[in-house]
Write a structure and sequence with these properties.
The structure holds two protein chains of two kinds.
Chain A (H helix, E strand, L loop, with lengths): L1 E10 L2 E11 L4 E5 L6 H8 L7 E6 L2 E2 L5 H6 L1 E5 L10 H5 L1 H5 L4 H14 L4 H4 L9 H13 L5 E5 L7 H18 L2 E6 L2 H7 L2 E6 L2 E6 L1 H6 L4 H6 L5 H8 L18 E3 L4 H11 L3 E5 L5 E6 H17 L1
Parallel strand pairs in A: 3-8, 3-9, 6-7, 7-8, 11-12
Antiparallel strand pairs in A: 1-2, 1-4, 4-5, 9-10, 12-13
Chain B lengths: L1 H9 L6 H21 L4 H7 L13 H31 L7 H13 L2 H12 L3 H26 L2 H9 L4 H31 L12 H10 L2 H32 L6
Helix pairs in contact in B: 2-11, 4-7, 4-9, 5-7, 6-7, 7-9, 8-9, 9-11, 10-11
């Protein structure tokens, strides 16, 4: 668990981070979002003491971070950056095995761990182990970066715009992989990004920052439903907020059972997001879709009218609350 | 995928390993031939200086002069490398950063001093012989090493150093395993410049009584004997070429071993 209370950082006269409070529970994925220079990266770097804070307290598992030696602390915290920071003179395998080697694991253990991580991240050992970073594509290099961060099985993972430099297709692929990885490994993740879609897709806890302060934090859904001000609303996509919210829920949570009416000829998989379903409705001029499972067997129906009615109800209850 | 395949071909591991050492070896052999062969080439030099009493320098055998010459350059190089690389490392650390401009300026100052002037100043203090010339070579050879050490270390990308720190490497580990290996080709280039310049400069030592390959040159100038001058100059030139191509091979080799990352 990571806890920041009243944490500030001044660089000279400039306040980069201004008395922020943040709590990331164990196994949760926290995304810090904001425009450039809002202090999100500084916040991240204060956690592994790459930057020492000016005031406030940071606790890891209840212990103040000063209780840890900075070098040992960093070996326990994974760190991924946008430019990967891989060592260009080391092979992929050696790069990944860095922290275990620093921790003086045995050669066999290191080798086994490197192999395990490479298969976890979809990097075939024979093909990539002996390559050098400059021989990798951006996506492959960032996979190596993530593998290196995970090498010593840290509880905490800090990621500073890890996918910011990748092309959109690779970025989405790696986001999906990270989400799948997180579902398996349950690390405590603090993830910095300026891409709201990325944050909405991955985060359990969303933190919006501006000028060193936290403007709003909460679950992605709660922010989408009730942004506190125009800044947060614009970050969340303004008029497209409805679609972003739809992207967070699955078709299977909104479908009704197959009725007596003739089923729609247009189909959508139950695991798709509501946003994708709405897109299919627009594309195919259909206000009803047949929901199918992975074997293409119809299991329900999704109707536009019902979705709208649900949203109305939701809005009603959220107003009351 | 295709571009990574072509890139891999550019870095052919261990291919042409032998080719690395052919050029320095060739120059080295030529050097040996000259050192051993000049005393037998009297006819040739006689043709150059028909009126001289002697045409082959004989006050000391050439191999002894060569040995002493290399010793002087070598001793100066060892100290210069230790001081130069050490200073370069020291002023790029957090604590020494304030001294960076000072060290950079001192090193350039060392090179603006003509070695002859250093000799003139050093002789009254250190006496005649080998010490003053080593002193002069050290001062003269410091700049390229300091400058390249600084450039090499500063060229290492900030993100790589940040990542190293964030992974929990200690400052010493970062220096040894990341910064120095990445800066090595540039530092080696500085050492190469320094040593190659000093091979020629060391000949000045003959003016203050350090016996080396400068002896035949100075003696030749004094006696108006071109044959002596050519003998000394020829061996010095070949020595410089041998060492320079040796450094060149080392550099190529180092770059390859460092994975030929694009720079």
């Amino acid at each position: 668990m990571i806890e920041l209370s009243q944490v500030s950082k001044q660089f000279g006269d400039e306040t980069a981070v201004d008395a922020i409070n943040l709590k990331v529970a164990k196994g949760k994925f926290c995304a810090l979002v904001g425009t450039s220079g809002c202090g999100k990266s500084t916040t991240l770097r204060m956690i592994n003491r790459l930057i020492e804070r000016s005031s406030g307290d940071i606790l890891l598992d209840g212990q103040p971070i000063e209780a840890y030696d900075p070098v040992k602390l960093r070996r326990r915290i994974g760190y991924v950056i946008q430019s990967t920071g891989l060592f260009p003179h080391w092979t992929v395998a050696r790069n990944i095995g860095l922290v275990p080697r620093l921790l003086k694991w045995s050669a066999d253990d290191i080798q086994a761990r490197v192999g395990e991580l490479m298969s976890l991240l979809g990097l075939p050992l024979e093909e990539f182990a002996h390559k050098y970073p400059h021989q990798l594509s951006g996506g492959q290099a960032q996979r190596v970066g993530v593998a290196r961060a995970l090498a010593a099985d840290p509880d905490i993972l800090l990621m500073d715009e890890p996918f910011g430099a990748l092309d959109p297709i690779t970025r989405i692929k790696l986001q999906d992989e990270l989400a799948a990885l997180q579902a398996r490994l349950h690390k405590t993740v603090v993830f910095v990004t300026h891409d709201m879609d990325e944050a909405l897709k991955l985060a359990d806890h969303l933190v919006v920052m501006r000028e060193g302060q936290i403007v709003q934090q909460g679950t992605p859904l709660s922010l989408l439903q009730r942004p506190v001000d125009a800044f947060v609303e614009s970050l969340l996509g303004g008029l497209e907020r409805g679609l972003k919210q739809a992207a967070l829920s699955r078709v299977k949570d909104h479908m009704s059972s197959l009725g007596p009416t003739l089923p729609s000829q247009y189909r959508i998989a139950a695991d798709c997001s509501l946003r994708q379903a709405l897109s299919v409705m627009l594309r195919d001029h259909a206000d009803r879709l047949t929901v199918v499972d992975q074997h293409d067997v119809p299991i329900g129906e999704l109707s536009l009218r019902r979705i709208v009615k649900e949203a109305q109800l939701e809005k009603g209850t959220s107003r009351d609350a | 995928m295709t571009h990574s395949a072509t890139r891999r071909q550019r870095r052919v591991p261990h291919a042409g390993q032998k080719r690395f050492w052919t050029r320095p070896l060739l120059w080295g052999v030529l050097l040996c031939i000259c050192v051993a062969g000049i005393p037998y080439a009297e006819g040739l030099f006689r043709w150059l200086e028909p009126d001289a009493r002697q045409v082959i320098y004989q006050r000391a055998p050439f191999y002894a002069l060569l040995g002493r010459h290399m010793l002087v350059v070598g001793a100066a190089a060892v100290v210069t490398i230790a001081v130069g690389v050490g200073a370069g490392i020291a002023v790029t650390r957090r604590r020494g950063r304030d001294f960076l401009p000072l060290v950079a300026q001192l090193a350039s100052l060392g090179q603006t001093f003509p070695p002859v002037a250093v000799l003139a100043l050093a002789v009254p203090i250190l006496g005649f012989g080998t010490l003053p010339i080593i002193m002069a070579l050290m001062l003269y050879g410091l700049l390229p090493i300091v400058r390249n050490t600084l450039a090499g270390l500063q060229e290492v990308e900030g993100d790589i150093k940040t990542a190293a720190r964030a992974m929990g490497m200690t400052p010493v580990q970062i220096l040894q395993r990341v910064e120095l290996p990445l800066a090595a080709p540039v530092i080696l280039a500085g050492i190469r410049t320094s040593v190659t310049i000093n091979i020629a400069t060391a000949a000045l030592g003959a003016t203050v009584g350090a016996s080396n390959l400068g002896d035949p040159i100075i003696a030749g100038i004094i006696n108006g004997n071109m044959a002596y001058v050519i003998q000394g100059a020829l061996i010095i030139a070949l020595l410089a070429l041998t060492l320079d191509s040796l450094f060149d091979s080392l550099q190529t080799r180092l770059r390859q071993r460092l994975s030929a990352f694009p720079r």
